[in-house]
Amino acid sequence: MSGNFVSRYMKQEFFMDVHPPLGKLLLALGGYLGGYSGDFSFSKIGLSYLSKQVPYMSMRTVPALMGVFLIPLTFVTLLNFKASRSAATLSCLLLILDNALTCQSRLIMLDSILIFFVASSVFCWSQFRKYAKKPFSLLWWNWLLFLGISF
Description:
Layout lengths: L1 H10 L10 H12 L22 H25 L4 H12 L2 H8 L4 H20 L7 H13 L1
Helix pairs in contact: 1-2, 2-3, 3-4, 3-5, 3-6, 6-7
């Protein structure tokens, strides 16, 4: 149903949703950059994107990029938590081989965006912890700000 929200954002229609809008706005950005006008109804699974010329590749690019950026983010996070390089590499290899993450990153879904921002929060927290002995320094405030943004 993410595509339905993207269509509503593109048409600038008001709608009510209980979930935060960032993921849907990022998908709408992908649609906007691809030239999507919001005319396609995502009401049924299996409808052809080609009939209404939906730029589904640009909309799929956003979750795909989030899935790709998750791998180096995980690697650096594990190194920040004092894991060995081999353990960080093995963890990233397991993420690459995870079939569910691969499928979620290929579709117009919000899951890979959510997983990316959760991993980003853990990364920012690991960076913030480095400056615990220097509270209120510029880097302490920067990583605290990035942590709040990624939350």
